[in-house]
């Protein structure tokens, strides 16, 4: 017995594991020094004390029940529990049990498995988070075997494919129900499927567009597919992770955009043809207007001249009524000649062949005011000009434009001195010119009509004119991609504005 006790003592002293001898009442008779080192208690605090003293409170009941079973016929050989160290921290212990029936002693060998338990718990938590991530991802995920058979799917994959888990598991990537096609509508052979390629090449496959038929909903979904092979410890292919996103909206939008581009190109071709035809017609019309104006002027000149000769030679014979008729005829001929002259000017306004150059609008206004020197004096008009910019345009059209606008302000003056102010302001894209007067004004409903050819608005006093001047202004401004408009108040005056782009 002494020899046996000596052997046990030597074992207890040299073991790195915790070895304890516990009697039937549950008290430690002997324990290895490693227990003191692991638990933090002294040997005196351990030997002779119930082993349950340092068992974690939640594990005491099951530990006591387990210890009692050791002495039953079907004795247990292994169990796990948690102990409380002297510093209050927990230890996870695994115990191997051997019963000495002769002495009614229990030999238990304990090993600290705290790190193992923590690792297992971390792995469980990681796996839980991983599964939760896969479950909640909007990306479809399939785990597929070496024959492309589907082993696992997440909810996003089932939703995109319109299938239940039972309907998809075990199917292959090239199952005929999928009827996979390329963007151009061609069939997608099974061996070219990203998963099949990943298996064959043992390499990742990225960003493959596939149109997959959904047999349940009887429609097609467009997917952007990736495949990533996974290998075992021997380097053999274990499985492939197939991920995909629904890009149906993008594909539909892309197809619609392609169709729209085709329609726009066709429309553009038609517009170009129409533009060529319209340009030809405009040239023809301008030529006709020019020729017709010249051809009409001569007969009118003759009518006017002969009516004047008739009045001079036979004035005494015709009497007052006859002279009045001759005056009507001469006046009509002169007005018709004025209309023809304005028509000719209108046909030439906004001529696209005019050279675009730097035009100093200050010099343009100098020339315009010289033209109106006599007329402005007779009308008692005052023309004020603020500093104006240099713009990109044609000098002749700009002169014609300003001449028409100034002439319009003088013509439609009130019975007071006419005051005309010419100014300009700029923004990032354009220059905006303004011609402001204190004339008779225009009603709000007529501000658009004044730019229509032959539209002459009623006035209190009869004012001569053809109704072409402002239409010519509009044509000139629009030829430079500008705008023209008017703000006005009856009895107060009008402000005509037009814009000329900087580029």
Number of helices: 13
Average pLDDT for all residues = 81
Share of helical residues: 40-55%
Quote the beta fraction.
15-25%
Please describe what this structure looks like.
The chain is of the alpha+beta class and 503 residues long. The chain has helices spanning 2-14, 33-39, 43-46, 60-69, 114-136, 155-161, 165-168, 194-201, 248-348, 361-371, 373-378, 395-411, 469-479; strands at residues 18-23, 28-31, 78-84, 90-100, 105-112, 140-144, 150-153, 205-214, 219-231, 237-246, 357-360, 381-385, 390-393, 418-426, 430-437, 484-489, 493-501. The strands form four sheets. A five-stranded antiparallel sheet has the order 2-1-5-4-3. Strands 7-6-10-9-8 form a five-stranded antiparallel sheet, sandwiched between helices. A five-stranded mixed sheet has the order 12-14-15-17-16. A hairpin with a 4-residue loop joins strand 8 and strand 9. Helix 10 (361-371) packs across helix 12 (395-411). The longest helix has 101 residues, at 248-348. The mean pLDDT is 81.
Which features characterize this protein?
503 residues, alpha+beta, 5-stranded antiparallel β-sheet, 13 helices, 44% helix
Write the layout of secondary structure elements.
Elements: H1 2-14, E1 18-23, E2 28-31, H2 33-39, H3 43-46, H4 60-69, E3 78-84, E4 90-100, E5 105-112, H5 114-136, E6 140-144, E7 150-153, H6 155-161, H7 165-168, H8 194-201, E8 205-214, E9 219-231, E10 237-246, H9 248-348, E11 357-360, H10 361-371, H11 373-378, E12 381-385, E13 390-393, H12 395-411, E14 418-426, E15 430-437, H13 469-479, E16 484-489, E17 493-501
Parallel strand pairs: 12-14
Antiparallel strand pairs: 1-2, 1-5, 3-4, 4-5, 6-7, 6-10, 8-9, 9-10, 11-13, 14-15, 15-17, 16-17
Helix pairs in contact: 9-13, 10-12, 12-13
């Amino acid at each position: 017995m002494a020899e046996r006790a000596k052997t046990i003592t030597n074992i207890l002293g040299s073991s790195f594991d915790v070895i304890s001898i516990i009697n039937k009442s549950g008290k430690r008779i002997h324990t290895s020094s490693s227990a003191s080192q692991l638990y933090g208690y002294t040997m005196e605090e351990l030997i002779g004390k119930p082993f349950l003293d340092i068992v974690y409170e939640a594990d005491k009941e099951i530990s006591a029940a387990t210890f009692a079973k050791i002495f039953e016929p079907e004795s247990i050989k292994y169990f796990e529990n948690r102990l409380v160290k002297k510093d209050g921290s927990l230890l996870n212990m695994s115990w191997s049990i051997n019963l000495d029936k002769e002495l009614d002693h229990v030999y238990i060998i304990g090993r600290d498995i705290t790190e193992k338990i923590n690792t297992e718990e971390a792995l469980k938590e990681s796996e839980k988070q991983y599964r939760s991530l896969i479950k909640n991802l909007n990306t479809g995920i399939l785990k597929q075997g070496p024959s492309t058979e589907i082993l696992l799917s997440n909810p996003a994959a089932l939703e995109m494919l319109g299938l239940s888990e039972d309907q998809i598991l075990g199917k292959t990537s090239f199952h005929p129900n999928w009827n996979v096609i390329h963007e151009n509508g061609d069939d997608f052979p099974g061996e070219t499927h990203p998963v099949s390629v990943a298996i064959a090449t043992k390499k990742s496959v990225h960003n493959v567009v596939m149109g997959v038929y959904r047999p349940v909903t009887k429609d097609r979904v467009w997917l952007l597919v990736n495949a990533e092979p996974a290998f075992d410890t021997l380097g053999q292919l274990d499985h492939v992770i197939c991920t995909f996103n629904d890009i149906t909206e993008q594909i539909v939008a892309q197809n619609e955009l392609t169709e729209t581009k085709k329609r726009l190109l066709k429309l553009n071709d038609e517009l170009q043809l129409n533009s060529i035809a319209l340009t030809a017609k405009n040239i023809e019309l301008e030529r006709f207007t020019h020729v017709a104006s010249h051809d009409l002027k001569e007969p009118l000149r003759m009518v006017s001249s002969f009516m004047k000769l008739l009045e001079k030679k036979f004035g005494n014979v015709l009497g007052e009524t006859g002279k009045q008729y001759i005056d009507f005829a001469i006046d009509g001929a002169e007005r018709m000649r004025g209309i023809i002259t304005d028509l000719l000017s209108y046909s030439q306004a906004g001529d696209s062949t005019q050279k675009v150059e730097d035009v100093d609008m200050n010099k343009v206004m100098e020339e315009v005011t010289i033209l109106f020197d006599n007329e402005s004096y007779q009308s008692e008009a005052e023309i004020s000009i603020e500093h104006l910019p240099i713009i990109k345009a044609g000098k002749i059209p700009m002169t014609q434009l300003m001449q028409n606008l100034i002439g319009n302000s003088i013509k439609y003056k009130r019975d007071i001195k006419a005051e005309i102010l010419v100014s300009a302001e700029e923004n990032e894209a354009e220059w905006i010119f303004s011609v402001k007067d204190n004339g008779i004004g225009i009603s709000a409903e007529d501000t658009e009509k004044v730019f229509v050819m032959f539209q002459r608005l009623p006035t209190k006093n009869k004012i001569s004119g053809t109704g072409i001047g402002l239409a010519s202004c509009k044509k000139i401004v629009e030829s430079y991609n500008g705008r023209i408009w008017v703000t006005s108040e009856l009895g107060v005056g009008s402000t005509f504005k037009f814009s000329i782009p900087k580029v």
